[in-house]
Amino acid sequence: MRNSSRNFWFKILDRYSRLAFYRKPTSGTIAVFGFLLMIPLFVYSVGGYPMLHKEQFKGMQKKNVGDGL
Q: Which of 2, 29, 37, 38 could form a disulfide with 25 if both were Cys (CB 3.0 to 4.6 A apart)?
């Protein structure tokens, strides 16, 4: 009985190829979506977060070496 219902859904998915596309994405699609997700996260972690929390990073600012000259 379990096989018959499984075959039924595969027949439906094979008939409508647009639905079959969502069943298993290609590795290139996963790579593109991963890249598009990681770039904004990286930009926020490097630029956005320190700008929003300036007081937290005040003590971490690098002092100029030749400032006293």
A: 29
